Amino acid sequence: MSEEEKPSLMYQCLKCGATVRSSELELGIRCPYCRYRVLRKVRPPIVKHVKAR
Ligand SMILES: [Zn+2]
C-alpha cells in the first residue's frame, strides 16, 4: 500500500465553493482563498476503465 496510490481527497469551501486538495491544507482545514474554516469532503470522480457494451 503506497501513499501515492491514494486518491487525493478534496475539500470544498462552503463559502466560496473553491475546491482544495487535502495536500494543500498544510495548516489544517481552511480555505486558502477566503480563509473560511468550514469545508466539506469531496470525493473526486474515479475514472474506471469499463468497456461499454
Ligand atoms: Zn473559500
Structure explained in plain terms:
The protein is an all-beta fold and 53 residues long. It has one domain. It is built from no helices and three strands. It has strands at 10-13, 19-21, 39-42. It has a three-stranded antiparallel β-sheet, with no helix packed on it. β1 (10-13) and β2 form a beta hairpin. The protein is elongated and about 45 Å long. The model has no long low-confidence stretch (mean pLDDT 83). The structure holds zinc ion.
Q: What is the CA-atom radius of gyration, in angstroms?
A: 14 Å
Can you list the strand order of the major beta sheet? 2-1-3
Total DSSP helices: 0
Helix content: under 10%
Distance between the amino and carboxyl termini: 32 Å
Low-confidence regions: none
Give the number of DSSP strands.
3
Write the layout of secondary structure elements.
Elements: E1 10-13, E2 19-21, E3 39-42
The chain binds zinc ion.
Short note summarizing the structure:
With 53 residues, this protein is an all-beta fold. Helix content is 0%, strand content 21%. It has no helices and three strands.
